[in-house]
Amino acid sequence: DGTWKELYVDAHDGKVRNVINFVAEHSYRVVPISYQEPTQKYETLHEPADYTTSQHGWHNFGGKNTTDTSGNNVIVYKRCHSDPNPPNIDELKCVNTTAQSSPNNAYEYTYNPDKEPTNDQNVNAARVNVFYIVNAMHDITYHYGFTENAYNFQNDNFGRGGKGEDRIQVSVQDGSGVNNANFATPPDGQPGQMRMFLWISTALLRDGALQNDIVVHEFTHGVSNRMTGGGTSRCLQTTEAGGLGEGWSDAMADIIEAKTNPIPDFTTGSYVVNMKAGSRSHPYSTDEKTNPLTYFSLATRKEVHLIGEVWATMLHELFAALVDSYGLSDNLRTDAFEMKGNVIMLHLIMDGFQLQPCNPTFTSARNGVIAAPWESHTGVRRHTHRTRGVGPTGVNLVSYHPPSVFETYDVDGANFSSSGVTPEELAKSFLAEKLGVTPESLTRRSGYTSDVASYEYFSQAINGIRVSNAVANVGIKDDKVVSYGASFVKPKNVAPQEPTLPLDRAIALAEEAIGGKWNQSPVVLEYTAGEDGTCFLTHVIQVQGISDGSWKQLFIDAHDGQIRNVVDFVADASYQVVPLEYQDPTQDPPKSYTIVKDPEDKGASPNGWYENGVLASPGTLGNNVASYKDQPLLGETTQSGPDQYHYPYDPSQEPEVKQNVDAAVVNAFYVVNAMHDLTYRYGFTEEAFNFQADNFGKGGQGGDPVLVSVQDGSGTNNANFLTLPDGQAGQMRMYLWTLTTPKRDGALENDIVVHEFTHGVSNRMTGGGTGQCLQTMEAGGMGEGWSDAMADITEAKSDPISDFTLGSYVTNKPAGIRKYPYSTDMKTNPLMYSSVKTLNEVHNIGEVWANMLHNLLADLVAKYGLGKELKPEEETGNSIALHLIMDGFALQPCNPTFISARDAIIQADLNRYDGKNKCLIWHAFAMRGLGLSAKDHVDSGDVPKGC
């Protein structure tokens, strides 16, 4: 139900002695923030607070819940005296706030335009609207950098920097003026004061507190004054700088209220003046006839609001251009790391505040916007960040993964003062020298040796405690370091190493955040590196969702209980089956749905597919896979005859009929086992952290077969794979697809099953078996790309390689579920490396990577031909492609980028094939913009000399 409470339980008799309710749902009757005033939209909103930025919600002050328009960020009132210059409002004895309209946290007062705004009902409506808008702006701007450290307005800063005790005080229907509003911004640590006045331009007066663009305008004065010059609030004091301040405030309202693409003309104040043109001399417009203002206009404008119109017009031009190029997000708060025009615009303005000098001019403010490190919010943030909705309320958490470096050293290896004999010793010696750290600060996570190279994985350690998101990996061949990746940090602050938050409290916080239960996995203490340079001591807790199938690892601060990071582990005999090289039953009948005899590879599955380490199973349960509907051990499909699993699928019947359920369960069992055996031959073995119940003493941790839930009830029109660390079972959920009549079963479309299984491979092999190293937006996108590429490789049947589509059976559309077919033809698939800059979702990013790998596969097959059985010892194009991808997993760093993953594939070719495909690989990537000079999602078609 999304509740979140802190209970004080008697340590002797177990009685509840006190309760703090963190997420009691509040409702507000308001003008939604993306609208201007009540005649556009006026409705009731439920719990709009963002608990990641307002950690105790909007109604908590001094550790106690409030029942009026006051809280940690703002207090809204109507003064009951006429003193125009009151002292600190918290010291006043006479303050009229608005109380709940009902005792269930409702603030629902409907504004009546037929009565004067001074009517009690209307006063309450105005106070509630301002309370909502100022809190919403606090939460939005917090995501864009206006945090405690950046001198924001909060009574309690929760130990995150800056000075507290400075929430905003808003006086509604203030008696000190009319037809205006203002905002007083003292230095950090002193409350901001907003005065909202009545407007007397109409027969019935109108209340500025109900015109959102005016409230947003005034709030933004606080932001620009605090962030320019470092919290002193003294750095927008010249006439030109003050004019810029007015312009930023209008521009913020323009951004917040944008709802259509292209961006329309924008006016401010139209409600209170009752004129469509609003309160400015011109609408903000890209049309020079509608708004002729230019920089030259400053020569005749001497007043700050008039100067501000020029600046706001320029910002409107930039805003419209960005939205035209990147589109429009409909939620600035949750999409703060997405590549959308309004998101970019807000980042540029907010970052520019911090970069520009005290008392900026138009020129220096312009330069601040240009210098704003937007790539740190898009390209680089894709490399380091991921935003996820967590728990039943969908609270958004941003996970942070320090930037990684990745270097390859060809066949000659790295030049360093080596000491050590074993791969572990050699790697540790190299990392100590390369990273400038002591051997004691390196903790080995795992390592293994394949047929061509050794791979060692380390974590950074501080005070003997592992740093969870600071990792390193080293590739070794012939006693030489041939590659390394690292994301180590140099912390500015390190939390005390002894926890003060009890473990049971940390577990309870994790469970409440997810709406799930701790799964009894061991809880360890690890440091977690934060973006601000702090290393937080955290309890690392795995929690599984009760109803949604989620499984996350939360890093709960061991001192204050905050969520510091989050890892999402879910990435959405004879058999009558769809053979692995086919896509679905309809592709080429009867060959595409037939009886396959004894498909097990005893080299990869020495006891076959039915021995689970204890006994032989008569059903779809074995050492590698358990395939079932509803429940493991109860929902498996048993043999149709001795050693036979022959259940013909009837496409005229719904997939839920028993015969069709059995057919789907058997097909999933076959495909996952076949993929286990295939990838085993290409390096995904026990010591490389594969999925098996029994590892036969060959390394790694057993007890982790893949559990495949067919026709899983937790979703439709999708599938997902949960990749936990080595030793915990992988979980694949295959759903029904409801786009056709009858419905279709995803477990009968092999490319979907292969796609999901490959999530397990890429997540386990990248980073040394932790399942935690494809967590950034870009790395997660490549995870989707590798999964599509694996299906492309396993289903390749023609030379030259043909275009490939995914999901065409379940959707009953030849084009499938991707935007373009994977193709070498630029007209058929135009995706380039630079396309990533405008993509905001992992599957879309994955399409770019998968198409690059399709081009590489096509080039390799053109040179070496196509092997029919994907034998790893053969030098055929598809076998080479699969080797390069699988070897690349082990070489690449934790949370790789397109560039480091490309370099890992090039190094893999050097390790396995002595680099004879180097130029072919470079040309394949360069054709899609990922050439030698490519960087930060800017295309390059160049290749190294000699290619």
From TrEMBL:
<protein>
    <recommendedName>
        <fullName>Extracellular metalloproteinase</fullName>
        <ecNumber>3.4.24.-</ecNumber>
    </recommendedName>
</protein>
<dbReference type="GO" id="GO:0008270">
    <property type="term" value="F:zinc ion binding"/>
</dbReference>
<feature type="region of interest" description="Disordered">
    <location>
        <begin position="581"/>
        <end position="611"/>
    </location>
</feature>
<keyword id="KW-0865">Zymogen</keyword>
<feature type="active site">
    <location>
        <position position="756"/>
    </location>
</feature>
<keyword id="KW-0964">Secreted</keyword>
<dbReference type="InterPro" id="IPR001842">
    <property type="entry name" value="Peptidase_M36"/>
</dbReference>
<dbReference type="GO" id="GO:0005615">
    <property type="term" value="C:extracellular space"/>
</dbReference>
<dbReference type="Pfam" id="PF02128">
    <property type="entry name" value="Peptidase_M36"/>
</dbReference>
<feature type="binding site">
    <location>
        <position position="572"/>
    </location>
    <ligand>
        <name>Zn(2+)</name>
    </ligand>
</feature>
<keyword id="KW-0862">Zinc</keyword>
<feature type="binding site">
    <location>
        <position position="784"/>
    </location>
    <ligand>
        <name>Zn(2+)</name>
    </ligand>
</feature>
<comment type="similarity">
    <text>Belongs to the peptidase M36 family.</text>
</comment>
<dbReference type="InterPro" id="IPR027268">
    <property type="entry name" value="Peptidase_M4/M1_CTD_sf"/>
</dbReference>
<keyword id="KW-0479">Metal-binding</keyword>
<keyword id="KW-0378">Hydrolase</keyword>
<keyword id="KW-0645">Protease</keyword>
<feature type="binding site">
    <location>
        <position position="759"/>
    </location>
    <ligand>
        <name>Zn(2+)</name>
    </ligand>
</feature>
<dbReference type="GO" id="GO:0004222">
    <property type="term" value="F:metalloendopeptidase activity"/>
</dbReference>
<dbReference type="InterPro" id="IPR050371">
    <property type="entry name" value="Fungal_virulence_M36"/>
</dbReference>
<keyword id="KW-0482">Metalloprotease</keyword>
<dbReference type="GO" id="GO:0006508">
    <property type="term" value="P:proteolysis"/>
</dbReference>
<feature type="binding site">
    <location>
        <position position="755"/>
    </location>
    <ligand>
        <name>Zn(2+)</name>
    </ligand>
</feature>
